[in-house]
C-alpha cells in the first residue's frame, strides 16, 4: 500500500480545537493568525472557515507540504504556508505585519507517530530516525556515536529517565559489538535495562524515546527561541497560545508567561514598581491552563497530557529576554553538544 495514502487516511484530532478557536476569536475583522505547527492543518482549516481570518502556517516537516497545498488551492487568498522551523519566525513575519494570534501545538502529529518508517514510535521495527524535518542528525547517529556521558545527560535530563545510567551502559556495550540500527534492537536494550518494578502506566521506552526525539530536533531550544520571536511579532492585545505535552515544555512556558507578565510581584514594597515593568510583555498571568475535557479524552486518549496556556501581549516594547535563555541553559547546552 502507498504509505502516504495510508497515512492520510489516519485521523489526527486537533487537541482542544474548540478552546483554541474560541481564544483566537477569528470572526473579528482582519485577524492574522500564525499557526506555527501546521501538522495536518486541524487548527488552520477551522480558522479558515471564518472569512475574516488570514492564516500564515509553518511546519518543519516536509510531510505537511501536501495537506498545506490542498488547503491553499481551496483558500488561496486567506492562507500561506512555509516549510520552516518556528525559531525562524522572523524570516516569515515582520514587525510591520504583526500577528493577532500565534499558536504552537507542540510535539508530534498522529501522522508522524504512526509513520513507522520514521522511528518515532517504539512500535516501529526499522530505522531509528526521529527527525521532524530540517534537523541535522538522526537518532541512529546519536545512539551509535554520542559519547557515554553526553548520552547519559540526554536520557536523564531531556527524558527525565531515572534509569538512564543503566540504559546507556547497555547501549554502549551493544554498539561495541554491532551498530544499533533498528528500533527493535533499541527497544530490547531499554527493556533489558529497566528495573522490573517500573510504572506500568507508561511504556518503559517512553522516556528514552522522548529524550532522543527532543535532542535530535533541539526541541527546547526551538521552544525558547519560538516564544521569544512570537513575543516580538505579536500585536499589543494579541495572544500566544501554546499546547504542551510534557513537563519540560510546560515548565518553560509557565516560567516565561509568569515571569514576563505584569503580575510578577515586586521584590520589596520599598522598591519602585517601575523596576519590574521592564519585561512585562504579557498581561497579568496567574498560572491558568486548560486541559482536554472528558468527551475529548474519550475520543482522543492521546490528548491526556496536553496543557493549553495562553497569554495576552501588552504594549511593552520588545527587548531580548536574555535571562529567560540563561534560565534554561541546562537543557539547551545538552541539545547543542556536537557529535
Ligand atoms: C502536534 S502536531 C500539530 C498538529 C496540528 N495542530 C493539527 O491540528 O494538525 C505538531 C507539528 O509541529 C511541527 N513542529 C514541531 N516542532 C516544530 C518547529 N520547531 N518548527 C516548526 N514546526 C514544528 C511538527 O512537525 C508537527 O507537524
Brief rundown of the structure:
About 40% of the residues lie in helices and about 10% in strands. Helix 8 crosses helix 9 and helix 11 runs parallel beside helix 12.
Instruction: Tell me, rounded to a whole number, the average pLDDT.
Output: 92
Q: How would you classify the helix and strand content by structural class?
A: alpha/beta
Q: Write the element-wise H/E pattern from the N-terminal end onward.
A: HHEHEHEEHHHHHHHEHHHEHH
Number of distinct beta strands: 6
Anisotropy-based shape: globular
Order the strands across the largest sheet as they lie in space. Answer: 3-2-1-4-5-6
Largest sheet: 6 strands, mixed
Bound molecules: S-adenosylmethionine
What report would you give on this structure?
The chain is an alpha/beta fold and 339 residues long. It has helices at 3-9, 17-24, 42-47, 65-74, 110-114, 139-145, 148-158, 164-177, 183-193, 206-216, 219-232, 247-259, 274-277, 294-299, 322-327, 329-335; strands at residues 31-35, 53-58, 79-82, 99-105, 234-244, 307-312. The protein has a six-stranded mixed beta sheet, with helices on both faces. The radius of gyration is 21 Å and the shape is globular. It starts with a helix and ends with a helix. Bound molecules: S-adenosylmethionine.
Amino acid at each position: 500500500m502507498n504509505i502516504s495514502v495510508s497515512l492520510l487516511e489516519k485521523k489526527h484530532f486537533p487537541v482542544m480545537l474548540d478552546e483554541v478557536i474560541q481564544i483566537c476569536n477569528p470572526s473579528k475583522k482582519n485577524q492574522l493568525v500564525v499557526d506555527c505547527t501546521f501538522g495536518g492543518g486541524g487548527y488552520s482549516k477551522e480558522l479558515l472557515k471564518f472569512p475574516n481570518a488570514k492564516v500564515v502556517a509553518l511546519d518543519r516537516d516536509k510531510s505537511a507540504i501536501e495537506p498545506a497545498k490542498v488547503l491553499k488551492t481551496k483558500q488561496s487568498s486567506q492562507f500561506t504556508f512555509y516549510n520552516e522551523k518556528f525559531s525562524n519566525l522572523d524570516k516569515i513575519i515582520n514587525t510591520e505585519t504583526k500577528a493577532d494570534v500565534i499558536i504552537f501545538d507542540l510535539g508530534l502529529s498522529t501522522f508522524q507517530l504512526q509513520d513507522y518508517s520514521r522511528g518515532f514510535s517504539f512500535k516501529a521495527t526499522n530505522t531509528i530516525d526521529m527527525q521532524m524535518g530540517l534537523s541535522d542528525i538522526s537518532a541512529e547517529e546519536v545512539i551509535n556515536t554520542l559519547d557515554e556521558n553526553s548520552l547519559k545527560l540526554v536520557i536523564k535530563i531531556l527524558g527525565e529517565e531515572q534509569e538512564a545510567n543503566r540504559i546507556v551502559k547497555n547501549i554502549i556495550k551493544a554498539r561495541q559489538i554491532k551498530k544499533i540500527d533498528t528500533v527493535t534492537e533499541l527497544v530490547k536494550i531499554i527493556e533489558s535495562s529497566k528495573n522490573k518494578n517500573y510504572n506500568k502506566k507508561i511504556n518503559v521506552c517512553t522516556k528514552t524515546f522522548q529524550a532522543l526525539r527532543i535532542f535530535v530536533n533541539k526541541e527546547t531550544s526551538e521552544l525558547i527561541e519560538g516564544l521569544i520571536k512570537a513575543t516580538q511579532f505579536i500585536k499589543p492585545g494579541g495572544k500566544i497560545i501554546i499546547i504542551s505535552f510534557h513537563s519540560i515544555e510546560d515548565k518553560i512556558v509557565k516560567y516565561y508567561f509568569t515571569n514576563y507578565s505584569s503580575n510578577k510581584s515586586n521584590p520589596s514594597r520599598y522598591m519602585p514598581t517601575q523596576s519590574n515593568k521592564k519585561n512585562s510583555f504579557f498581561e497579568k498571568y496567574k498560572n491558568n491552563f486548560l486541559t482536554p475535557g472528558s468527551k475529548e479524552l474519550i475520543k482522543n486518549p492521546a490528548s491526556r497530557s496536553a496543557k493549553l496556556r495562553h497569554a495576552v501581549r501588552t504594549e511593552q516594547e520588545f527587548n531580548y529576554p536574555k535571562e529567560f535563555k540563561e534560565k534554561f541553559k541546562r537543557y539547551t547546552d545538552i541539545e547543542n553538544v556536537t557529535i
